[in-house]
Amino acid sequence: MEVFIEKDYEEISRKGAEIVAEEMKKKPENFVLGLATGSTPVGLYKELIRMHKEEGLDFSKVTTFNLDEYCGLAPDHEQSYHYFMDENLFNHINIDKKKVHVPDGMAEDPEAFCQEYEKMIVEAGGIDLQVLGIGGDGHIAFNEPGSSLGSRTRVKTLTQETIEDNARFFENIDNVPKYAITMGVGTIMEARICLLLANGAKKAEVLAKAVEGPITAEVTASMMQLHRQAIVIIDEEAGARLKRKDYYKHVEKMADLLKKKK
Ligand code: F6R
Q1: 82 lines ligand 1 (CB under 6 A)
Q2: Exposed e or buried b per residue across 200-216, where buried means at least 16 C-beta atoms within 10 angstroms of its C-beta
Q3: 237 falls in which pLDDT band (50, 70, 90)?
Q4: Does residue 39 line the site of ligand 1, with CB under 6 A?
């Protein structure tokens, strides 16, 4: 696992976007990008939009798969993850909407849809890079504590904590969806690169558990420790509880030195 500790949110967004753009350019014909919603990746998406507008970063051949979607919300519902992605990324870049995939919250047969979603990922060639955030309870996508570490795309019942967290976006708590379709931990682990971002003091404790604690279904993000190419980009606040903080910074400095020598 590579851990980068940056000054602030702006810096993690910039570094995250740089890595995404670099990987996209390696596979200009058929790059497959996994995306997350939530507040964390918004800055990264802003930076990708800037790179598209100012530097011509081309999304026309990129295929995307989002991690999750609420059950019962249509793509044009303001709180749906599909709507979020349109507003924060897709409407501002030259992506072919036919290549955009967000789980269908209105699927008549959600279980069958989940299997179909897995198939679509495989048919696209697998995910090259998956953007991830981390929940306050250590979840990735909607893989709440106790989720199987080998899980696939499926319908999950949301925890009370997540429902309460999300209540601020709805008129009242009764309107918050209780179920979601989410990629499984096993699905996420098959992405060639996992790029996890976190910022703010609120994430410090759980981030330390995910990066340096035991691998456990209680913190599904801890599975990143088993991934062959997991990149974690955090700000100083989110990194405050890491025991090996100084070592991660040293590794980054040494890698920079090596690059300069080349
Ligand atoms: C959203 C998702 C979630 C979020 C996590 C952190 O697609 O997969 O796991 O990444 O809940 O949310 P924020 O970024 O709002 O702190």
Answers
A1: no
A2: eeebbebbbbbbbbeee
A3: very high
A4: yes
